[in-house]
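Translate sequence into structure tokens.
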Amino acid sequence: MPALFAPLLVALGLALTQAPALSADTPEPEPPARPAADPLTAARGHIGGGRWAAALAALRRLNTSGDADWNNLMGYALRKQAQPDLDGAQRHYDAALRINPKHLGALEYAGELALMRGDLATAETHLAALVRLCTTPCEPLDDLKQAVDAYKAGKR
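Result follows.
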């Protein structure tokens, strides 16, 4: 039996002696980079808690108007506050969709805003876009479909 392992042991010994040696001054490999923290986290937290003024303040501090997510959240917070700013919300949803025409959240929220304004045709246009873009499960699609169905049933 030991004779069977002899060639394997010789090969292993050669591999170990021919492996490149690490010198003391060889730097250790860098650890993988951590993903950058989402700058919208604080605003999302405020939105999740229904703190619209705090969400708007956090978003305004960031002022990343070239970002579709930022515009979508601005539109949402403006629309949901105690005294909704529907025109401001519309501008931000439009900006989000100019930046990213496939932004699922902006399509959903712009559709909901259209329903608030009594514009079923625009809401259905956004719903159709979500139908094309979404795979199941798709919360924005489900939420806007439910809102459109409720609107049609007279449950505005």
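Note: The CA atoms of residues 139 and 153 lie 21 Å apart.
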